[in-house]
Amino acid sequence: MTIKLGCGQGFYGDGLAPVADVLDAGVDYLVCEALAELTLAILQKDRQRDESLGFTRDLPLYLQRALPFVLEGRTRFITNAGGINPVAAGRAAFDAARAAGAGGTGLKIATVVGDDLRSKASGLELPGADQALFANAYLGARPIVEALAAGARIVITGRVADASLFTAPLVHEFGWRWDDWDRLAAGVAVGHLLECSGQVTGGNYSGRWWNNPDPTRIAFPIGEVEPDGTAVITKPKGTGGMVTFDTVREQLLYEVHDPARYLNPDVIADFTSLNLSDRGEDRVQLSGCRGMAAPQTYKGLVCTPAGWAGECRVTYTWPDAEAKARAALGYVKARTVADGVPVEEWWEEYFGVDGFGGPTVEIPDGWDPPEVTGRLAWRTTNQADAARPAREVGVLGLSGPPGISGLGRAGGGSRPTQLLAVDPFLIEREIVDSQVRVDIQEL
């Protein structure tokens, strides 16, 4: 028996067009991985404006694409789009399915809850616990497996580790034991390769990216997995992008600190034990992954307020573009200090000189860039102070160095934005597991 896993999303805001190709190719599971640390902070800002939010608002769009296949029994749908409010996401999924005519079909929608640790933040001595806006643990595959075993065809979760979303259907379908570390490691390897959508199929590729046969529509990947964990990474036939030995191994190392000990809630995977074999025609096989016992703790993430930020950008042309940009940003800083604005931190960078490489860039003697964009950012404790430095930027139009452009709206200054700090922590598994549950609704 071969189980086909299709990736339908790699981040909040990912493309929708490739989803249709994955579904038409025939997958047993469509998995949408929607979360990142930054995403959780974005969802927190949504929830601050409206308590009913906190999940990814494109969830109904992905459900609409998948629902006909789900109702026909051709696929199941799994996503962590519940973010920091999976209960509300579950309601949104239920309403979207009912609006699409799924009422009376017996469709089961499961919501996994229990990753929220805000109520325990002070007792756990988390950073800034008294101000915690959210605190969530990264769950593993177990509650998703429980939901699938209960007959759910749609599973909505909160903060579940990316690869575990893909591991869960394999555990369910193949009956893998929770101490079968090699097979679980193989599932995590497959999940890690699939989780970033087009990144394994030629998108964001650092090699010969220009050889991509159709860069306008990079396909999303499919994993064809066998009971022993052997798998093939591929893509729908006739679509853009490419699956090669190099695109797969590049994704394999993406966001990996130690390839020999890739920590996941379900297992510690040794990616160095993997064998990759390019079979041609956009098919790369992986086998032989070894695993070790799962960590004793879950990873968690706590979010706390971190002040307010503002920024401005100004662009100057040759000659002396860098000197002009530095003088302009120096003017804004000097006027801000003179006005008594309590700025806690400044940051400046010069695109065209060091904006990407920082101080490591070696500028040839006598080189004068044709244009330079200076960016100045600042942090304050409150919104009103964060807005004040930007008021000085417009003066540069007539009273600053010559050759200015790119002031943009509001005289080159942006509106202040609230800063949120996110800090990782470790938590004993028993504390989290005791509150995890699966809620199931049936249409």
Write the layout of secondary structure elements.
Layout: E1 3-9, H1 17-25, E2 29-32, H2 37-49, H3 59-71, E3 76-79, H4 86-99, E4 108-113, E5 134-137, H5 142-149, E6 154-156, H6 162-174, H7 181-194, E7 222-225, E8 231-234, H8 245-252, E9 262-263, E10 268-270, E11 275-278, E12 284-287, E13 290-292, E14 297-317, H9 321-338, E15 345-351, E16 371-380, H10 383-387, H11 396-399, E17 404-405, E18 417-428, H12 429-433, E19 437-442
Parallel strand pairs: 1-2, 2-3, 3-6, 4-6
Antiparallel strand pairs: 1-7, 4-19, 5-14, 7-8, 8-12, 9-10, 10-13, 11-12, 14-16, 14-17, 14-18, 15-16
Task: Briefly summarize what is shown.
The protein has about 450 residues and is of the alpha+beta class.
Explain what this protein looks like in three dimensions.
This protein is an alpha+beta fold. The protein folds into two domains: 3-116 and 137-295, no CATH class; 302-422, Alpha-Beta Plaits, CATH 3.30.70. Helices cover 28% and strands 25% of the residues. The protein has helices at residues 17-25, 37-49, 59-71, 86-99, 142-149, 162-174, 181-194, 245-252, 321-338, 383-387, 396-399, 429-433, and strands spanning 3-9, 29-32, 76-79, 108-113, 134-137, 154-156, 222-225, 231-234, 262-263, 268-270, 275-278, 284-287, 290-292, 297-317, 345-351, 371-380, 404-405, 417-428, 437-442. The strands form three sheets. A ten-stranded mixed sheet has the order 11-12-8-7-1-2-3-6-4-19, sandwiched between helices. Strands 5, 14, 15, 16, 17 and 18 form a six-stranded antiparallel sheet that branches. It has a three-stranded antiparallel sheet with strand order 9-10-13, with helices on one face. A hairpin with a 5-residue loop joins strand 11 (275-278) and strand 12 (284-287). The model has no long low-confidence stretch (mean pLDDT 94).
